[in-house]
Specification:
The protein is α+β, with helices and mostly antiparallel strands and 162 residues long. The protein is 38% helix and 19% strand.
């Protein structure tokens, strides 16, 4: 009987590890999602690259937000996008959510037409060269908190993103 419990536990742990590894985006996938959106509007090379130095900021601040999972920005000197999603909400899903604001951005007037578009312009900002994201499970909800930081920060008032 003890061996049966142990076997069940081992199978459960293997499934949990496989599930959590499938519900993850690699840095390359996250960078590619950003670079794809940037290429659509002609942002020239160099493309965004992954910045491990921003890792501590993204992870530490995301950890603070896990208690309430509120989308409250940090006071960091870096650019920042936040998102929350349910189910198997991945970091790339957050990037796609932000890129979904594209129809709200009017390049001619450098403003949002209707709703929010600053997440989108942060993704495509021409002078931004590095990105780092963190994705952590919320404590109070069955949801995921995603934070991406950008260096140098974009969304400079009065400047166009590209």
């Amino acid at each position: 009987m003890e061996m049966s419990k142990l076997s069940t536990f081992v199978v459960f742990m293997v499934l949990a590890i496989v599930h959590s590894s499938l519900a993850y985006n690699s840095p390359d996938e996250i960078v590619e999602a950003h670079n794809s959106a940037r290429a659509q509007v002609g942002v020239p090379l160099p493309s965004l690259t992954w910045n491990d130095t921003l890792a501590t900021l993204a992870h530490d601040y995301s950890s603070i937000r896990l208690a309430d999972c509120e989308l409250v920005h940090s006071d960091s000197p870096y650019g920042e996008n936040l998102a929350m999603g349910y189910g198997d909400f991945l970091s790339v899903d957050a990037v796609n959510l932000w890129v979904g604001e594209k129809p709200n951005y009017d390049y001619a007037s450098n403003s949002c037409k209707h709703d929010m578009c600053a997440h989108y312009t942060a993704v495509i900002w021409n002078n931004t060269l590095q990105v780092r994201c963190a994705r952590l499970k919320c404590n109070n909800l069955d949801a995921w908190f995603v934070m991406c930081n950008y260096f140098p920060a974009g969304n400079v008032e009065g400047e166009k993103p590209y």
